[in-house]
Amino acid sequence: MPRKILNESERLSAFMKPDFIVRISLLIVVAFIVLGTACGPYTFTPNLPGYIKTVAIPLFKNPRTFKYGAERVITDAVIDEFIADGTLDVVDEYDADSKLIGEIVSYKKEALSYDVHELVQEYTLAVVVSINFRDTRSGEIIWQEKSMYESVSYYTVETSAGPAETEDEALERLAEDLAQKIVNRTMQGW
Question: Are residues 79 and 30 located together in one domain of the fold?
């Protein structure tokens, strides 16, 4: 039996039938349900016990590296990031419900690229820290990571790829990225 060829208005009316609209609507609802649950539940609420409202952040330790002042730059960035997040109040150790202890495990600066005269144009700066976040009431470790890594690249001369930066400026950028990572791990568990 030959198939009937529909004109344009007949094709459009086939899509406007109630059973077709119901099927498409049902398909869309099912797709949203599947997609909504496929990634698992996500919440912006902290991954912490409810009574933890404050955090103490003592100066990071720096016993293994020769980069003077790196501990202050990283500590300040972490404090600033917790303040910007606003979920936990940053307080002194005696009033804190939790404590974040950090130590700089390694600090490396390596040349990445050179100019025609073999002068360094670009460096990479890499820092590894050990972090311990604990509940001060119970003494329980909430999370810890012995080798949290962060790195940035920076140019010593202005290039088409970016402006010139000092090592200290690059360290500040690195510290901000590392601080975001620490706050995300503390508040969301990742």
Answer: no
